[in-house]
Amino acid sequence: MAFTENVNGYLTRLAGKAVLNGTEKISIGLSINALKQRLDSYFSGQLAETLIFGSYSRGTILPRSLDERSDIDYMVVFSDGNYRPQTYLDKLRRFVEMYYRSSEIVQSHPTIQLKLGHICFELVPATKDWFGGMKIPAKASDYVNWVDTDPIGFNATLVAKNQENGQLIKPLVRLIKYWNARNGYPFESYALEQQVVSQNYNSWNVFDTQQRSLKDCFYIFMEDLDAGYYTPQWTRQLIERVKRSIASVKAYEAAGSTSQAVSLIRQLLPMN
Fold first, then answer.
1. Is 90 helix (H, G, I), strand (E, B) or coil?
2. Taking a C-beta distance cutoff of 8 angstroms, is the pair 246, 224 a contact?
């Protein structure tokens, strides 16, 4: 008798494919090492430290095959913090123009975006205050002012939430980010991760974390997803469609029509 995959099995398998494979991780690792060596050489004595933050450091980055916008946030902390942000952005631009001449280089938001063939780096200039706190360019100030930041503070929050929910939250983040990428990026990636982590995944039938599944968490998050009052109409319509799809999937499951339920989930989140 042929095995019929259920919705939870399909989502679990897809979440597994949404992890960087060995070859991609090695390639990115080599690029990270080269970038650090070049930064240390070019800015000899001028840097307090460099660090990776964002989705790569949290283990929630998607492969480029699933999200063409996947990137690595790389903070470059300058020892001398006496200048305005644009001064340091200009320094980073000159650095990448020297070492990465054939790559695409763009100032995007308060970063220098370095697009390589296999990955994109977002180079973020930073300084430290008297107490060791990090400061990065403020987005709304045309890079004139600094704003306080905690680049890795969210990592611990994600880890705790993941542990509280049977190691299901990181796979869920990857599924939701894949859905977001497939639908034109209605949500900013980091804000979406924050929504996933802030969601309460307890419900009348899945309160016990031992019984909770990735499918349960996916349903709960999507059913509660709210774009907000000022969200564009197309985003609100997208959310309404996905909620109708989830309702249909659950109806198929209740009727014992597993193959139809999986087929509908495949339409929502196809596996490449």
1. helix
2. no
Q: Which of 198, 262, 252 is CA-nearest to residue 225?
A: 198
Question: What pLDDT is stored for residue 18 in this prediction?
Answer: 97
- Which H helix or E strand runs over 210? none
pTM above 0.85, yes or no: yes
For residues 76 and 123, the answer to whether their CB atoms sit within 8 Å is: yes
Name the pLDDT band for 236 (thresholds 50, 70, 90).
very high
Burial state string for 13-41 with b = 16 or more CB within 10 A and e = fewer than 16: ebbeebbbeeebeebbeebbeebbeebee
- Which tens digits make up the pLDDT trace of 41-75? 999 999 999 999 999 999 999 999 999 999 999 99
- The alpha helices in the chain, defined as continuous H runs, are 7-17, 22-42, 55-58, 85-99, 153-164, 169-182, 189-198, 214-224, 233-254, 258-268
What six digits make up the tokens of 185?
Answer: 């990026």
